[in-house]
Amino acid sequence: MNSWVALLIILFVVVGTIGFGIFGVRKIKMNPAQFILGGRSFGVIFLWLLSAGEVYTSFTFLGAAGWAYSRGAPAFYIICYLTVACITIFFYMPPVWRIARQHGLLTNADYFAHRYQSRALGFLTGLVGVVFMIPYLTLQLTGLQILLQIAGYGAIDSIRAAGAAFGLIICFVLVSGLRGAAWASLIKDALVLAGVIFAGIVLPIQFFGSPQAVISGVVQAHPHWMTLVGPTENYGTLWFASTVLLSGLGGFIWPHAFASQLAAKSTDTIRRNAMILPVYQIMLLLVFFAGFTALLVKPGLKGPDADQSFMLVVQEHYPAWVLGLVASAGCLAALVPASAQILAAASLLSRNLFPAKEEQLTQRTRLWIIVLALLAFGLWVYNRATLVGLLLIGYSGVTQLFPGVLLSLRKQPPQAWSVASGIIVALILLSIFALQGTSVVYGAHVGAVALAVNVVCLLVVDFFIGARKRKLSP
Amino acid sequence: MGSEHEPTEGTSSSSSDDTAGNDGVTVGSIILAAIPFFALTLGPFFANRLEPRIDGLPFLLAYCVFWVLLTPVFLFLVDRLRKR
Q1: Contact pairs from chain A to chain B, CB under 8 Å
Q2: Beta-carbon neighbour count of residue A379 at 10 Å?
Q3: Taking the CA of residue B22 as centre, how many other CA atoms within 13 Å lie in the half-sphere pointing to its CB?
């Protein structure tokens, strides 16, 4: 009985949100720029909804609480890096947007191909985007499965249920494109906000009297939980600083995040969005409270189970309809970003890896969405080990494109091959570290180390082959 | 700048500096934005403490929240500088 109440609420919310998204785009005629970038017409509110909608995925919802539960203070990096990302896009995104609009560029790989006059570099950067986007996408599937499993009280096959929900959202994005995803973000953000206020304020008050009391409780039980451990351990201060830097610089290099910025209607919109987006981080503070509450109420969850922490508390102590509402917020936090992510990955395939003609582009992108969806779901069900490996490199891997974006804005950008060699060397380095299972080198995040190697390699190669620099087209 | 070939339809007009290529990035605006940037990346080296607690929050978390909330103010000032 209980399981049906919660699941029906989720079904109702998901279908309702999809309906709302489709309603929002009913009068829009689809062309490639409309499908992939919403016609580059998003104002501040729409852009904010979309960027916030993409940044706050199920991983934020469950993962941030999971980190607070299992690691404590290192979780604070999440609110810092997103803010650093906003500071950086404030500067580099407006000129990038301007170039993209002038030349009809739709993806981040388009940008590389155009700016460096090299289809090969466009191919390489597109490939990097797709390869790391697939595991990121399946991360949403895992989040979805956890939520459906808890909401079903174990009574349903959560893998199939996650597959069904994923299928629904794929159909949705096929019809509505990026604009539909932005409309769906409206409901998603509202529901996630309600869910987070419940989990981060109501839960602590009911169990301990106030959010502050939870902090005191955690400090009493675990004296070192609220500070970073010394420099010799993993997750120390250097790890924190390097991770904030790495994730901050790479935050909007992800294909879907890059696309969301290109969808802005003006450079002022981008700047204003960068200004207000940090305020949204305060929501994550509440997610931390939820994780800390779960740590005291339901201790002992290990490894990936920590991500289920506060949902399990809700399941045990609240009626099914409350669980259903909180879980449906989480499901939307998985599904809405997934729709934008798969759209971005598919557009890399249809534009940069297997370029389609302009008039076929929308159809071809739709086709790739279906292929990617099947591929992602198949990998997720049958070969999770590969995904975990790719994901370990993913966050660091995508950031390796950042030097190329930044340096492209110089009057004399480096040569395409210099940029490519930096990316390739960094990715090889990251793969070696991943195979060894190393994620921290001398206390710093491996991705940050790879980024440093990347930049050095880029400059050295450019020094040699760039001797006869030719000017790029303005 | 040459002619704009606009591949999209229904794009609303944008402000003039979008085509003029004027971002107005100056040394001053970069220094101003670098303050929250480095406060957030380098902060834990000196803010990694539990006490004093601020409104119940451990100092490290309060420090992060403080700079996250202050960043919009800095970016607003950078934008003001740009438009001058």
Answers
A1: 150
A2: 18
A3: 9
The per-residue pLDDT for range A331-385, each reduced to its tens digit, is 888 888 888 899 999 999 998 888 888 788 888 888 999 999 999 888 888 877 6
Cβ atoms of residues A156 and A3 within 8 Å: yes
List, as ranges, residues 7-66 from B with C-beta within 8 Å of A. 7-12, 14-15, 17-19, 21, 23, 25, 30, 33, 36-37, 40-45, 48-50, 53, 55-58, 60-61, 64-65
User: Which CATH number is A2-385 given?
Assistant: 1.20.1730.10
**Residue boundaries of the structural domains of chain A:** 2-385
Interface of A with B in 264-323 (CB under 8 A): 265-268, 271, 274-276, 278-279, 281-282, 285, 288
Is the per-residue pLDDT at A387 higher than 70? no
- Locate the chain B residue with the closest alpha carbon to A244: B41
Per domain, the residue ranges of chain B are: 23-83
- The answer to whether the beta carbons of residues A51 and A340 sit under 8 Å apart is no
User: Model pTM?
Assistant: 0.88
**pLDDT tens per residue across span A8-19:** 888 888 888 888
Q: Is A472 helix (H, G, I), strand (E, B) or coil?
A: coil
Reduce the DSSP state of residue A438 to 3 states and report it: coil
Q: How confident is the model at residue B16 (pLDDT cuts 50, 70, 90)?
A: very low
CA distance A380 to A134: 10
Spatial contact of B29 and A101, defined as CB atoms under 8 Å apart: no
Q: Using one digit for the tens of pLDDT, what is the confidence trace for A54-102?
A: 777 777 778 888 888 888 888 888 889 889 999 999 999 999 999 998 8
